[in-house]
Predict the 3D structure of the following.
Amino acid sequence: MMATVKVFIADDHGVVREALKRFIDAQPDFQVVGEAAGGLEVMEKVQSSRPDIVIMDLGMPGLDGVKCTASLIKANPDTKVIALTAHEEAAYIKDCLAAGAKGYVLKRSLAEELQLALAVVARGGTYLDPLVSAKLQEMLSEPADPNSSANKLSEREVQVVTLIARGLSAKEISKQLTISVKTVETYKARALEKLNVHNRAELVRYAFDHGWLNDDLAK
């Protein structure tokens, strides 16, 4: 039996927060420990409630959900974020995942999608609403620019960068690719220099733009 997962709700609509609270508290092993109506309030209250998962609306006042996600994860690396939003545009999905969110669920989806997202993310996975998967696939299938600096990367550098973008640590990448941690760091440094990116958020955007997050690329 898993320990109780603490959940924080961030949404600027009180009716939505109340409905989410009733729904989540009714799930076995999940408990709502706090709520907020704006991004700045989220940052303040999360420090005291220390939730395992934050359900994040993207359209909040003060500090929008994408920026709030990035700031929250930077300050609380162990906290996972699930975006719960009406936005279905690929740009929102990409920016939200680049900010560090581990889940993306649409408000128009059935409640079972949020229930599944909570279970998957609580166990350390990433969950995307099936309704947005087609948009991501369309984005990933677009042909890459033949003049892109991505073509300067070796196959191994692409593998390492892809796994970094998926959230794996250097140690995990080392184990998966059967190379040393030092070698992973070398490939990473070379790739980031060639791509002229400086942090994980930029790296994830680049990986998305070039279709590197398809399932077969990191194998």
About this structure: The chain has two domains: 5-139, 149-209. The mean pLDDT is 83. The radius of gyration is 18 Å.
